[in-house]
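In response to reviewer comment 3 from the previous cycle, which asked for concrete evidence that the modeling workflow produces usable outputs, we include below a single protein chain processed end to end. The sequence was submitted unchanged, and the resulting structure tokens are shown without manual editing.
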Amino acid sequence: MSVHILGGSQTDFAINWNRAGLEFDALVRTAIEEALEATRIDAADIGVIHVGNAFGQLFTGQGHLGGMPATVFPELWGTPATRHEAACASGSMAVLAAMSDLESGRYDCALVLGAELEKTVPGGQAASYMGAAAWTGHEAQDTDLVWPTMFAALADEYDRRYGLDAAHLRAISELNITNARLNPYAQTRKWTYTPDSFTDDDTANPPVVGRLRRQDCSQMTDGAAALLLVSDRYIEGRKDIRSATITGWGHRTVGLPLDRKLQASATDPYVFPHVRGTVLDALSRAGLTDIHDVHGIEVHDCFSMSEYMAIDHLGLTAPGESWKAIESGEISRTGTLPINPGGGLIGIGHPVGATGVRMLLDAYKQVTGQAGDYQVPNATRYATLNIGGSTTTTASFIVESVR
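The workflow returned the following structure tokens.
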């Protein structure tokens, strides 16, 4: 049984829903309405719903978000729904659960929704809330900036093992923010930068932690993304459907602490062998042998350092040599293997529960020729790499156009 993407929706990640006086109900209603309109299917066709959300209770006090679709959409009353949490990989976990439901034959149409509201509190409090995805009380205890601290430590580890030039991190940030200019849903598309914003200038690009500076970090974002996934049975005989197929997937989980991950890989060529394994699992299930068999990739650049890590773990370069793909231009929107042509998390935004779903939606848009100004020419096969925490949860998908 194959699983197909019919399409979906993404809200405008530049909107501050709290400032507009709107809550989860409005966010979820908007995403579902736009997804149904985009796919031209009836809500009555949806057999099951899977919701990705990481921090709903912390930022808004609202839990039990599996019940929100039926709350705002009467046609979904009585439809089984479940919320999934795996930090920044929550959306991908919702996708995997929906795939299992379809592959088992229980249902033929699934709604996958990822949603997060993060602008309900000041930035420092928001950063502290997100620290819940680490091993609370056991790591990064002396700071509210848990994730900048973690990925700065990853940068230090790369420097220790292979050497690292921070200029390559700045180049990743600049590339993604530049790409986002072409994306009508990107949070940063109208933000103002100067040439010094991507340098080590302490005023234009203030230091955050270690090697990381402001533009190396994705920003707090409100937003949602939705997908309609269907079975072979659903699309059989329907010639009016424009779909793509999920041909490969990978999913691995390891322990929470970053230091244990680094200890476990001390003698391995890769800093995170489980991330490399996740990518290889997805490629293998899709019948591929090399990442260069795809035409573009959505990667998890919560920080420029996480994209730097992704480049070698995907297999674009040998371990520790991600800089080569940056300097050569291979990963640029017009390069031989574009990464984040729509802006990634740094450029588009990172509403945590929505990110994995948004990545897969962009993959669908690319292979069906619907990505607009950030379309990768002739893309028919696309990959995603989504991580949660310090790569505690990792998921990867391969999406291909239907011929």
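The two ends are 17 Å apart (CA to CA). We consider this sufficient to address the reviewer's concern, and the full set will be provided in the supplementary archive.
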